[in-house]
Every structure is written in structure tokens, then in C-alpha cells.
Amino acid sequence: MRFTINGRLHEVEPDIRTSLLDLCREHLGLTGPKKGCDHGQCGACTILVNGRRVNSCLSLAVMHQEDEIVTIEGLGEPGSLHPMQQAFLHHDGYQCGYCTPGQICSAVGMLDEIAKGWPSHASTDLEQVSLDDAEISERMSGNLCRCAAYPNIVDAIREVAGADARTGSDVGA
User: How far apart are CA 7 and CA 43, in angstroms?
Assistant: First the structure.
């Protein structure tokens, strides 16, 4: 089977029951996505598939042969970090670091959803989504952090989104 992951084509022969997470970790050595709960409840395995957030532990690899898959390893690299990776460093949005790859991939996908105008259950204005605490909490609810770095993660997301980290309002508004 052929998979495009982080811009590189990979030819592998996994069992048809192999999850996308196990393909990345066990067959390709991409250890950024983590196996947390293996039930889609913690978000440690979150990656981007065609720009959308996916719990890779719940998705079969065979379903994604034609898709563009991005793991944390494909977002940035040392010396050239993705803005979200840089913001997590700046705001100390990690503690033990186990959930961090999934948190970052989810945050990148979340901001893309907002840019596309997709409301969430917490959106009070369907025309202009504000990054208030309720909005970010709702959109990131699939990603758990056992170390409770949530306030720092929220600040990192707001920085990348261009919102004031203290108020959630748009910078320059």
C-alpha cells in the first residue's frame, strides 16, 4: 500500500486491520502520535488527514491511501518550527509532553476549522467565531492533558490565532 505522510510517499504492507496510528508508529517509525487510550478518548494520537483532525487510533490505515497525512513530525522541524509548536514552547503549553503532539495537531486543525467558518456547539456568533474560553474548550475537548497545562495551551492557541491571550478578543479589534 502507498501512503503520503508528511509529504513523503511510503510503500508498506500492513495488515488490513492496522490502525493509522500503528502504521505511523510501528511501520514507519513516526513516534510523535502517541497511543494513549487506544479508544479515541484522549486525543494523544491526533493527526491531520487532508487538513482535518483525526484520532488515528480509530482509523484504519487502508482507508487513507489517497490522503495527505500530517503528523507532528511533518508540521515543523528543529530550527523551523510551525507557529503552533513555537507558541507551545513560548507559553509552556506542555508538561510531561505526552499529549503535546496530539494537542498541537488538534490546535492546528481547530484554527483551520475556524478560518473556514465552521461553528462549534459553543459558538455564540455563527458569522464571527470568537476565541473565548468556552469556544476553545469545546473545540479542544477531545484532547486531554493529565498534567493540566490547559491555560498555557489556550494561550498558545490564542497567540497563533492572533487573539489576545488574556481576553480572547482579536488583536487590533
Answer: 23
Kindly list the domain boundaries of the chain, sorted by start residue: 2-75, 83-161
CA 161 vs CA 7, 47, 95, 101, 171: distances in Å: 25, 19, 22, 18, 9
The whole-number pLDDT of residue 169 equals 53
Q: Is beta strand 68-70 parallel, antiparallel or unpaired with respect to 46-49?
A: antiparallel
**CATH code for the domain defined by 2-75:** 3.10.20.30
Burial of 148 (0-12, 13-18, 19+ CB in 10 A): exposed
Element (H, E) at 10: strand 8-11
83-161, CATH topology level: DNA polymerase; domain 1 (1.10.150)
Mean pLDDT of 155-166: 81
